What does this fold into?
Amino acid sequence: MKADIVIIGGGVTGSAIARELARYNLDIVLLEKEDDVAMGTSKANSGIIHAGYNADARTLKGKLNVKANPMFDKLAADLKVPFKRIGSLVIGFNEKDLQVLKREKENGERLGVRGLEIIQGERLFVIEPNLNPEAKYALYAPTAGIISTYEFTIALADNAVINGVKVLLETEVVDLVTEGSKVTGVKTNRGEIKTQVVINAAGLYSDKIAAMSGDDSINIRPRKGEYHLLDKNWGNFVNHVLFPIPSKVSKGILVTPTTHGNLLLGPNSHDVDERDDPATTASGLDEVYSGARKLVPGLSRSDVITSFSGLRAAAEDEDFIIGPSNRVRGLIHVAGIQSPGLTSAPAIAEMVVELVKETLGEVAPGKEIHLKEDFQETLPTPVIFNEEYETGNLDGWQKLVKENPDYGEMICRCERVTKGEIIRAIHRPVPARSLDAIKRRTRAGAGRCQGGFCGPRVVEILSKVLGISPLEVTKKGAGSEILKACSKELIRRAGDGDEI
Amino acid sequence: MSRTTIICIGCPKGCRMKVESERGEIKKISGFSCPVGKEHARKEFENPTRILPTTVRVKGGELPLVPVKTAAPIPKKLLLPAMREIARIEVEAPVYTGQVIRKNFLETGVDLVATRDVKRETSDRARITA
Amino acid sequence: MVMRFNYDLVVIGGGPAGLAAALEAENSGIENILLLERDKYLGGILQQCIHNGFGLEYFKEELTGPEYAGRFIERLKGSKIKVKTGTMVIKISKNKEVLALNREEGLLTIRAKAIVLAMGCRERTREAILIPGDRPAGIFTAGTAQRYVNIEGYMPGREVVILGSGDIGLIMARRMTLEGADVKAVLEIMSYSSGLVRNKVQCLDDFDIPLKLRHTITSINGKKRVESVIVSQVDDRLRPIPGTEEEIKCDTVLLSVGLIPENELTREIGIDLDGVTGGPVVNEVRETQVEGVFTCGNVLQVHDLVDFVTEEGEIAGRAVSKYLKGEREWRDQPVRLEPGKNVRYIVPHRIDYRDKDRKRIKLFMRVKEPGKDVKIKLRDGTGKVLLAYKREIVTPGEMVTVFLPEALIDENMSRIKISIEKEGR
It folds into this structure.
């Protein structure tokens, strides 16, 4: 296999870069080691589109966040991703906090963040009635928003595929091939791809990828953040993204509604050694819950429907690392992308496009690059029962069922997802091949019963549509098969051996 | 003299009863609080039996399995051998509730019977009778 | 266009409660009845409960779950009740209009004069009890595993640890063992099993499966598939005791940690739920605060005997008939039934009607703590003991029932308090 560009990593960064590069006449391959895109940091974060007031103007974080924030209205509309500009509040409890808020506000204004305002007194509780009554001040940022982070990533990748990018799932990079000090290819578990330009968007593993070329300039220090997600009957309990006063490395444990109407609490922040250990801990979740209660005391833990954690891919000096490797030509690092990485992704992608043009000019001087005329900006409008139902378009759905009865078979009762929607998810440009991938695309299994009802039904649909045995259906890729054996297989095998 | 403890299943009290025996012959039963308990202890000691409910594979059915049971209790020690034997059985749909799957199952004098109807597979669609 | 129908009675849910309610309503003279079931088959969860032990109260014989359901499904065939399976109810409005969805008709709205809510319950998940750790494949609620094993024909695991010793957990321990899996242990956070003694003996002891009381899972390990669990002993306040951790290797965790009545539709109608039962607040005929909307079975209170579910369905079915025929006589004031000492809840919550035909009202309740040699005392508003029943044993796992004779209900009475007290006090 050959490609003009190979992107390593199907997170929000790699997917945004893939889509942006797909505007040009380039052969692009995106490699993802997991069975779906958005499987690392992009799957488990707060889903906040930050206003951008709190980063240092001299850093990439500061510049790119502010640049990217306004891009989300068009992006979300084009890609049909749930996004709401609900605004954020940083909550202060005393005079000292107020000084911090004032500093943040000035910093934000210097960066060009619009609409920042310090709110105090009664008005605070008019706009946020369930806020801790002891709160006194808040920095209001109207441009902050919430997005479904994995749906955004999947949509970017889907759109990239529609525009010609090849996304190879369960394809892990095992080595970078160099000749002299130039990249010539990428070795994967599925074979080698010849290329002159490699973009390292490998998130938590971006230092490992760099090291494959002898470049040891990156050092990723994973930092874990744990979350609680509350039932949908809590979705209206707060109206904004609520932050505490930030610490040096983290914006703190926040409370926010999600785009689907749940309530999200978290994250805490702990440095960890392992990059693939997203386990939650009892003490961590306690920390999250008590942290969230400081902002919103009326929360109830009995309505937690799921808990999870994500790992931030923090680089040593905390800023993004975006630029060509100083060791090998043709390798571009996009590493250390932690918060506000989700927000910055569209601006990062634009920046990387320029870097790619420069790099191609160096390593492939004959290559002529131009915009494609047939680039498709948008994804088709998804078919979602719950949305048609909420907006009252029952006759429209009725027509759909008559055309395809699968839209009349309700599979997930909690989130109201039909069989037709699930089959559609399996056929998306980046296909859903596992239970979790179906959940991220359709919400089947994301509700209060957490797949207890729909799990067996989704396994059956996946097996039928993919033409595989139910025994081969996984939760999240190879090794996570859901079922262990056919009925009677175990007892028959036991019978062949000794008495049990 | 040997002692065996048997927990009564007659009611929520769950009396812990003691059976004293010599060469398999009951000498004394104690710890029960009613005649049902005493009788249960005797039976559990001499010949413990259980109804075995399980499933049998179905060929050509709308479901892959049909639930079955032994029509009467069988000796407890036969439960696992019975499961291994049942693992080998496959019946052809349709199957009806009460249908004998194996007569005199494992020479126990007890039949293995179906406990649900399983029709022949027609289509994958949900049935509607409106 | 969305299809429209009219029925006298719509029953939501074709499990034992809904089946009993529909059949009994027809028996009592209601003709135009529709039964809606979301699954392909009637019978509800009974169809996957292939074990025996059902029907001892109602049929006076021991049946398996499918046999018990089959009896009612047979009766249904001889009735005029309309059935739509594979039909999910989306919404019920206060004016008794039901919106549902199925493959054949798509969306349908049904106007009903009366509704019986019989949606049953769902299982609590890992999150309901906050078990931290990894999120691999191999974690199932016991009921989901039961469906895989008994209906779908697959084994969800080989080496199994079960958390929770309620009846479903115990039944699944035996079931998995019989099908060739290795059940390493059943863990129970309380100091007693909440399952029936009979199930403890015949599901665990028969197969030498250890029951570890006062133990819980404090972490689940495994990146892709469950590899082990960390099990800890708990203290009197049910908190894990540091230093007691033990690792058990397994590929599967089954959770049997409680059931939650499935009342999302109910809540949307605007019906109040009892914080303890998780079910609607009802009067003695299982009518909710919305006149003409009745409820029965596990959606009202989680039962441990299906026989009681049937009985409750029949109460609701008869009540629908009286309601539609206008044959009801309200009391001047309702009698509230109040849980007293060691009573967690009572169903019904109040008595609304006068009924000379009935001799007594059956009251269902659960205790908070196990007790031996107790008296169940019913007191009126003045504290006078109206009636007392002796019980040798009460446990939270087994519902307690007593009868309240109609003759004892005074016209001026506004409340009856029930407490369960140690005898001799």
